[in-house]
């Protein structure tokens, strides 16, 4: 059954002013229209920003623990609706159901984490150098925030941004990917049911080039948080620099797993399969490079191919499916183009490399898990983000060489090393230039209580999620307050 979605503006579910709509299809079977969504235009964005601006003073003044109570309620509702939402994620985005449920679980985790922040939002109190004077810092909201989110984690990533923005006292306009508007609308529905006041959260659906760009450059927007492609992120960076508007970016990755010769082979293999082919490789944290020590490479690649060939492709709602479809035809074509590029560059295609079209698979864009061996660091398939089930295997003779390959790219989101030698892993931990490092675990699996963010071109240095330096820092600004109760002029740095 097709879900009829509406935009959510000022507490009301409404059609786009233009009356236009667009369809969101099931990537496992594009004949199924999962949802129809209103195609927002400038007039809808205007109203959403005005609603968010009008709601800001009251939301900001509501004590943070009270805001937290609403978020706790949202967390409870997410738990109650986990199965329904997980299935919706799978239907609309294609990932297998266990991962669809994981997507919702990540939203549950961040809802409770950020709700709890309502009773912390810690600033500092420090001694003054002068008598009868105190000094403190506190978090204040930025105002109206625009959140632009991708399709690959259609519940989790909007939640990272929403719950952090809300607990800090900001109001929000969410512009989700036009591939997954139903997931976004379901999440906003949960926030409404939890008691978020009208205008505090607004939803506008539509393509990034039109609605998204208009929204983020709108004069009434105070800050922008974006997760998506490098190309879009870099364009935003240029726009925001002119506007002097805070911008948090999470962009691409070309994450690598290093497999040393003393690695537990089965553990490393499972990590590569999970990191490379989980979510059909459509994660910013996907393991698309595997750097294997030359002494164990041949055997490792043979086993990897053997296991990759056995992975079952299909509709993610079917229990035995391990690899779902790519999000849409354009993404599928891009992945096949990269596979062709890899072959032209002289990499050895060991398995996969083709679109699967047997039976039901013909109705979606499925690509067989693909492994390239003999990849060298200069090849495009070793340097560019593919965002599909393609693993490029490179070779190394020692840790230093492996680390150099990992660090040689402008990307720096996550990396991993498999080795049973504590000294090797400790050195890797110190030298790997990525925002997240995994030891004896794959490149995916971040938890919400620590920051999630890429270094260099993978991000803008404003990580998502919790922990020191996490999303609270982006969605608030620090106000420093000095209170002098001496009743006389006191001069810092001068009176001694
Ligand atoms: C993404 O890769 O796009 O660490 C987000 C992970 C998940 C989040 C990934 N918790 O893989």
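Sequence proposed for the structure above (496 residues):
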């Amino acid at each position: 059954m097709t879900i009829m979605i509406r935009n959510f503006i000022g507490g009301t579910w409404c059609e786009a002013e233009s009356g236009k709509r667009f369809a969101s299809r099931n990537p496992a079977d594009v004949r199924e229209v999962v949802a129809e969504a209103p195609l927002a235009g400038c007039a809808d964005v205007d109203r959403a920003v005005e609603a968010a601006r009008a709601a800001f003073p009251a939301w900001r003044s509501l004590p943070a623990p009270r805001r937290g109570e609403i978020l706790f309620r949202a967390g409870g509702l997410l738990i109650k609706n986990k199965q329904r939402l997980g299935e919706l994620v799978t239907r609309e985005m294609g990932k297998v159901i266990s991962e669809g449920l994981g997507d919702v679980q990540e939203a549950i985790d961040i809802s409770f984490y950020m709700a709890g922040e309502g009773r912390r939002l810690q600033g500092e109190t420090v001694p003054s150098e002068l008598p009868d004077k105190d000094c403190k810092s506190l978090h204040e909201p930025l105002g109206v925030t625009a959140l632009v989110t991708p399709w690959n984690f259609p519940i989790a990533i909007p939640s990272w941004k929403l719950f952090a923005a809300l607990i800090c006292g900001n109001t929000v306009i969410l512009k989700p990917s036009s591939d997954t508007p139903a997931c976004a609308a379901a999440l906003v529905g949960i926030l409404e049911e939890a008691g978020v006041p009208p205008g505090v959260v607004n939803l506008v659906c539509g393509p990034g080039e039109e609605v998204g760009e208009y929204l983020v450059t709108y004069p009434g927007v105070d800050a922008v948080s974006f997760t998506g492609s490098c190309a879009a992120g870099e364009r935003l960076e240029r726009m925001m620099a002119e506007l002097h508007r805070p911008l948090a970016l999470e962009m691409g990755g070309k994450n690598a797993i290093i497999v040393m010769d003393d690695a537990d082979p089965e553990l490393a293999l499972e990590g590569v399969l999970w990191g490379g082919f989980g979510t059909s490789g459509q994660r910013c944290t996907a393991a698309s490079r595997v750097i294997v020590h030359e002494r164990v490479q041949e055997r490792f690649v043979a086993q990897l191919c053997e296991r990759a060939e056995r992975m079952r492709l299909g509709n993610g709602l079917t229990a035995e499916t391990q690899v779902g479809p790519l999000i849409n035809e354009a993404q599928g074509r891009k992945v096949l183009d990269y596979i062709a590029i890899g072959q032209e560059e002289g990499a050895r295609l060991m398995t996969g490399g083709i679109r699967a079209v047997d039976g039901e698979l013909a109705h979606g864009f499925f690509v067989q898990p693909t492994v390239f061996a003999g990849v060298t660091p200069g090849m495009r398939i070793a340097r560019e983000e593919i965002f599909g089930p393609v693993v490029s295997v490179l070779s190394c003779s020692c840790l230093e060489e492996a680390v150099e390959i990992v660090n040689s790219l402008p990307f720096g989101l996550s990396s991993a090393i498999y080795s049973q030698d504590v000294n090797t892993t400790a050195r890797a931990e110190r030298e790997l230039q990525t925002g997240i490092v995994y030891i004896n675990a794959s490149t995916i699996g971040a938890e919400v209580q620590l920051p999630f963010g890429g270094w260099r071109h993978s991000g803008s240095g404003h990580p998502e999620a919790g922990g020191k330096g996490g999303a609270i820092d982006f969605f608030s600004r620090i106000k420093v307050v000095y209170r002098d109760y001496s009743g006389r002029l006191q001069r810092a740095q001068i009176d001694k």
